[in-house]
Each structure stands twice: as C-alpha cells, then as structure tokens.
UniProtKB/TrEMBL annotation, chain B:
This is Thiazole biosynthesis protein ThiH. Its cofactor is [4Fe-4S] cluster. Gene3D superfamilies: Aldolase class I. Residues 85-302 form the Radical SAM core domain. Transmembrane segments: none annotated.
Amino acid sequence: METIKNDTFVLGGKEFHSRFILGSGKFSQQLIRDVMEYGGSEIATIALRRANADSPENILDYLPKNLTLLPNTSGARNADEAVRIARLSRALGCGDFVKVEVIPDTKYLLPDNAETIRATEILSKEGFHVLPYMYPDLIAARRLADAGAAAIMPLGAPIGSNKGLRTKDFIQILIDEIDLPIIVDAGIGAPSQACEAMEMGAAAVMANTAVATADNCPMMAHAFKLAIEAGRAAYLAKLGRVLESGAEASSPLTGFLQD
Amino acid sequence: MRKIYDPMEYQPNMQQIDSDIFDHVIAARTAYQPEQYTAKQVQAALRKDVLSFEDFAALLSPAAQPFLEQMARRAKEEREKHFGNNVLLFTPLYISNYCENQCIYCGFNCKNPITRCKLNAAEIEAEMENIAKTGMREVLLLTGESRSVSGPEYIAEAVRIAKKYFSTIGLEVYPMNADEYAMLREAGADFVTVFQETYDLQRYGEMHVAGAKRCFPYRVNAQERALMGGMRGVGFGVLLGLADFRKDMFAAGVHAALLQKKYPQGEMALSFPRLRPYKNHEETNPNDVHETQLLQMMLACRIFLPFASFTISTRERADFRDHVLPLAATKISAGVNVGIGGHNEEHQQKGDAQFEISDPRSLEEIHNAILAQGMQPVYTDYINTNIL
C-alpha cells in the first residue's frame, strides 16, 4: 500500500498528506483543537473577519500552531473587497494562502464567479496562493486557472445546507478538464458524500457545518477523515466495472465485420 | 400651534423614493387573517425547504402555537446551518435622548419630564473607550429623534470617533434621506436599524401624535433608503403588542424578505421588542405578548428568514435570552446601560433611560452564560473594507 502512504498533494509549493480541509467557523472554539486532531487536518480555513487579536475570544489562539492557515475573504461582496481582505490577512501574518470568497447574496450565499476571477487575477499577481470558491462552471474554472489560481474550490451545494453533491456532474467535468487540484467545498453534509467526491477524483474535500452541527464534533471529524481516505484509496485503486442494467444483445450490432 | 400631519403625508425635506415595497408590505399585512390558518397548513409549512409568504403566515398564526416544539426543532436546525453556534455580542450606547416625537408608549416622549442631555465629542469618546476596554468590537449608537439637537452631522461625528474603537458600527437613530445615510456610511457606519413599531396605519397615527415620526411611509421606506445610501445591512422591528402583533410580525418579515430580494447584498436583521412598563398612558396596552407568543414570533421568523441576524433584547429576562440563543437569536447585547452616559464610572449618568432592562448582567457574565450553553461568543464578524 505504498501508493497510499506516499500519496500527497501540493498547494502553493507545500506538500500535504491530509486531504481533509476543515472550516473553523461555526464551532465552539474549545472544540477546535480536538476536531483538528481527530480529523487529521493539516489545513484549516479561518474567516479573517472573525480573527481579532484584542478581544476576549480569538480564534487564532485556539488553532494548533502546525496547521497551515487558509484565511478566507468571507464578507466580501465584490472583487475589490476580497482583495483588501486578502491584503489585510497577509499584513496580519496569516501567510500567503487565501481562499477567495465573493458572495453578493445574503440568502443563498452563492458566489459571484466573474468577480472571483477578477480577485484571483489581482491576488495571484501579488504572489498569493489563491484558492477560489466558485459555482462549478467549466468556463469560469478555465479563467480561474488562467488567472493563476492554485486550486479550484467548487461548491457541492449551498453553504451550510448539508445537502451533498448536488452539482456532481459539473464537478466531474472540472476534475476531468482542469489541471489543478479540485477541492469540493460547501454543502457536504455526511462522510459518505465526502467519500463520493474523493472517488470521483477530487483532490480534497472541505467541510465545516457537517462537523460543527454533529452531536460529537471530534468523532464526526474522524469519520470524515476515514471517509476521505477511503474515497481517495478507491480512486487510486480505480473503480471496477459497473454492471449496466439489462442483458447484452445476443446478436451484436458489430457482427457484420469481415476483416 | 404645531401642524397636525396626516400620517401618510410627507413633511418638508423628507425624501420620497420610487419603490413599490411599501405597497406590497401594507397589502400583505392587510390581507393576512391569522385566525384563518389551520394545523394542516402549519404542518405543511414545516415540511417545506424554503417557505413562501403563506407558509410564514401559517407559522405566525394561532394555529401554530401547539407546534411550538416542532418549530423550535426546525428553527434550531436552520440556526445551526447558517450560524453554527456563534453568538455575536454588541453594546448599545445612547448618546442623546432629546426627542421631538410624542410616541405615547415611549419613555423619550418629548412631553415626558425626564432629564434630557446629549454627550459631547469628548464624552462620547470616553464612553467608547470604556466599552472598548471590555473587548467589545461592535457598538450600536442610539439617539432620540431631534434633528435640531442630534442632527446627522452630530451622529456622523460620533461614528467617526467610534471607528477608532470598533470594527462594526450600527445606528439606531431616526429615519433619514438616502444622501444622509450615504454620508454616515462614508463616516464608517455599517448597519441601520429602524423600528417601524407597527405597520397598522391607523394605530400608527394614534400612537405617533406629533413630530417627524408621524409620517408613516417615510419610516417604512427608511431601510430601503439606507440600502440606497450604501449601508451594509438593515434592521427591522415592530413593537410587539402595540397593534395586532401577528400581523405586524408578518409585515416586518415580508418587508425584510422583499428588500433582500431587491438588494441581494444587503444583510437583513430583526429585533423583537415587546412593550415594557412606561411612565404614563397605562391604559393603551390591549395586546399582550407573553413569552410563548414572543418565542413563536421568533421561531417563525427564523424558519422563514434562516439567513437573517436576530437580536434578543435586554428587555427580556436572562433565562429567556439564554434559551433563545440556540433556537433563533444570533446576537445579544451585553454590558448594557440604557441611560445617557452610563459607561463612565467617573461621572454619573447624565440623562434618563428610554425603558427598563430585565437582564442587567455584565459582559463577562453573558460571555460565560453563552459558553455554558455550548455556544461561542463572537466579538467581530465583519471587516469594513471601505476604510482598509
């Protein structure tokens, strides 16, 4: 099983073993350390708007120090706001990674792909490793790749909905066509869905609400870890033949050939 | 003698905007007959993923009262999905209680013999410094309605001072024109809340006998003007118990939903004040809202507007506040002093309060109560990128 042991993926020049990215919002902060540990995550997203050094509760104090931080631009409603938040993040010492979220709709929290492309272009030029959150659209994903994105983060379903891979077919197109890690983000509600995304060939899965709303958050994080590893192994092992329904025709349609 | 305005009549310098939101909200309220809904409609509404106005109406109706437990479960789920267990903390700061309105239920009524005052810039700064020292990062600035004493420029000055100490600044002041909201946004304000009190025109006219507040449509359209002025979000509220509270809550929810649809970037917020004891006119309270009804209103709104931020008032007792946090409310005030200048220990409170509070706990006590509920206190949830 050497293949699985040596299976890593690279983001912004950094090598990661875990393919489980955890969102740190929506949790009680005391739980975060346990959740990260049981989930085996090496990358955690943080909402920069939540990170404040001079208040009684600062999320940065609760995150294990060996984690790679993936600050997000949540709260940004257009590219300019996302760019400003990213720069602030870097100035605060949160590193060069940024998850670009541009969300101009407060009801469904769906992203604006056009503005996301614009922000990705600006930030990539400034040396950020940009991971854009997007609606899974092939053309927009190509533009994000051209704009310098380090990975693409398509949504499975609306944020927080726990509805699973509702955009499955379109995510599969991105996996097949885009030469960047595809990280399924948002909407994943159960480990089985994370597993399915990994079987499809996703590079990683990001979850937050599904873990944060479980009765036992650390155990749910552990379940996600196992599911993601299982899905990844299945992908590497290559899934077997799927039996089609109905029998094969007894007189083949290509039986007329005479070589 | 002061002129008595028709509540539908605009007064000089009040901006009239071209919008059909007012008509839609008032028509929806008028058509809503809470008594006509059945248990079946309530159950159907609870099975829906995204609720229609009709579903919302059913959940607010008396027929939904026996389903409070089911509503609480659904509301809790929605709250978890959209906000996790985060609870946002803020402190209100009353900077002036001068008022030119005669709202017959209100402690700031200009005919009430209370001590009036307004804080000057230095006093505002001292208050803010004290609040900020506690770790609080969101402040809500409040005034009575007096354009001559606490005009828009006075409020803008307070906002500019607040910007030095806070990451988020809300305003709960009298309605203004869109250009004035734009000026306050420029100064650093983020959110504007205007309580409609009631969407019942006749009752509104009876309750607001004089002053700028008498103009009903100008107040209803305040949130839209604030959004036109570039505000990040707007807050709504009706004073439950002033008129038919179910119909008023329905109107407020529909109002927020319609504005969100028209301004999808705008963040919607709701508050749920009930009538509290006041100094005079004790006979004007025919429509009591007990905790059961209040909770039903909050749960129905949470299920209908799962994305909106809800504030739970200090007018409610501590135990009620704590228990609605996991179910519906997302925002709670702490370290509250509703008098004018109450955050400075060196000198006494300068002016009287608008109402009595029922939850006098300190910030630390509320912080710990939130943790005890298994919830997470959050002090900042927003970066104003205009000033980065």
